[in-house]
Amino acid sequence: MKKGLFITFEGADGCGKTTQLKLLAQYLENQGRDIVITREPGGKGLGEKVREILLNYDGPVSDRCESFLFLADRAQNIDIIVNPAVAEGKIVLCDRHIDSTVAYQGYGRGLDIERIKMLNSIATNGRKPDLTIVFDVDLETSQKRVGDNKDRMESAGCEFHNRVRFGYLDIAKEEPERIKVVNAAQSIEAVFDDVKKIIEKYL
Ligand code: TYD
Ligand 1 in contact with 153 (CB < 6 A)? Predict the structure, then answer.
């Protein structure tokens, strides 16, 4: 049986990671690998309901409540989707995971970063991704990609999103073995070439 892998895709809104995730899924499937795609918030089932609250609830949401909802969804995703698939030798591609909470709720909303990391480790039972790719893009390009139809998180403002972006770059410096940064302001093809180079080392 091939070795399972857990790979996460991270970056600010509009960085293009979801497009790259789909390209990579196709590429790996063509090589005969079993792929499972999931996302946070909202892999499937209960996760989708949590996602609906997080992105569309229009009443006041406390920053800690927001964090706990992301964490609850994470625990569900890890236990129900990620771990069983990796154990079966599959490659799990996950759109956002632990680093989103550090970047958005920590750097973005200003909650205590060490505490978030501790809560992340409770939500995941200490399991970290084998590889994380951060898609880094300047604010102007990402805002253009997001467009005018913004959800609750995307409406948080330019300063917030700049903190998120630089938060990701800080996180990547702390864990260079796990986290690789790709310049996502390039064309889709050029970004994907970079992704393939990174992935080859893990296959
Ligand atoms: P989504 O539509 O999935 O955005 P994207 O396509 O950019 O991934 O919405 C997820 C939003 O939730 C996004 O704005 C980032 C935010 N988020 C957090 O703030 N904290 C988290 O822990 C996670 C997983 C996501």
Answer: yes
CATH number, residue 128: 3.40.50.300
Residue 75, ligand 1, Cβ within 6 A: no
Residue 95 and residue 38: Cα distance in Å, rounded? 6
Instruction: Give the pair of three-digit tokens for residue 173.
Output: 């410096």
Residue 162 Cα to ligand 1 middle (Å): 15
Confidence tier at 177 by pLDDT (50, 70, 90):
very high
Confidence of residue 198 (pLDDT cuts 50, 70, 90): very high
Give 89's contacts (C-beta < 8 A, 6+ positions apart).
1, 2, 3, 4, 34
Here the tokens at position 40 are: 């946070």
Among protein residues, the one with the nearest Cα to ligand 1's atom 23 is 100
Residue with CA at minimum distance from ligand 1 atom 17? 100
Residue 153 has pLDDT above 90, yes or no: no
Q: Report whether residue 18 contacts ligand 1, using a CB cutoff of 6 Å.
A: yes
Nearest-5° Cα angle at 137, 7 to 20: 40
Which pLDDT band, with edges at 50, 70 and 90, does 49 fall under? very high
Give the integer Cα–Cα distance in Å for 72 and 167: 22
Number of structural domains the chain divides into: 1
Residue 32: which domain range?
5-202
